[in-house]
Amino acid sequence: TRGPTKSGFRNTISLDQFAAERLGPVTRFPTLNLGVNIDKANRSLSWTRDGVLLPAEDSASALFRKMFVQGDPSAVKRQLHKLDERASILDALLDDTRQFQRALGRDDQSRLDQYLTSVREIEQRLNAARQWELRPKPTTNEQPPDDIRDQKQFFEKFDLMLSMARLAFESDSTRIITLMVDAFATPPFNLHPNQNTTDGYHNLSHHGQSESKVQQLMDADHQQMMLLHKLFTRLTEVREDEDRLLDRTMILFGSNMGDANTHDNTNMPILLAGGGFKHGQHLAFRHDRNQPLCNLFVTMLQKLGVETESFASSSGTLNEIASNT
Asked: Where are the beta strands (DSSP E) in 189-319?
């Protein structure tokens, strides 16, 4: 199997989209794809089955409006008209493909079948979106947020997006959220009051063993952990029936690099919280008996109720985190 670092690699569906396909339209938004300091055109955690990037939302105010602000009857009518127009375009595409479908060879037929499957999935999402447009949106006591434009206010932006993710889960607007913190687009940022980093986040990670850069990176990572702790605490305070919301929520936090200084993407630091797993442990796998990260993904998918035995390069599940209950 070609990995991301090998020539000829072709990207395909991301974990969030895979899960959303199988859960179906149980919420207004099948997934929410968010970003902090994100390069929308080139960076995302969400990808379609055909390997197409799905742009991330980086505006907290826009996300708040999507989730909680109910349009007046004329606005709802306009939105329904847009959805109907998109559905008409898809119908026209399907009609055009049927005209030459029989004349295609086997390979072209296979590619066309993949294309038609994608079109049908879009049709299903449009139909679901139309139904949700006719339903009232949830309410919240939270005030609409102001967007933070200054990229140097990195921790404030991260905190704000974590808060928006919490609101989305609390209101059951979605069951699946991705949040990408884009180091490439983060310039020198506020590390402490009246103290900025000496370099952007990406360049700090390529520290070359510089003590100053390593210390700044450790400080920044610690502050991210504190913001995650704040999120965990807030989810613990919210109850759904008899359970804490944290126990019903799986939160996966990590990096695509084990050592960014050398661009090593093995032995990656991954943190998993919530979801009723067996926590309070550090799993360090030997290099000669390592496990693919996708084994963790399969374990999470099964916990979510998705019936699957594999995802991407998985070789099984991660039994070490299975709950005793």
From this structure: 190-192, 195-196, 239-240, 243-244, 250-254, 270-274
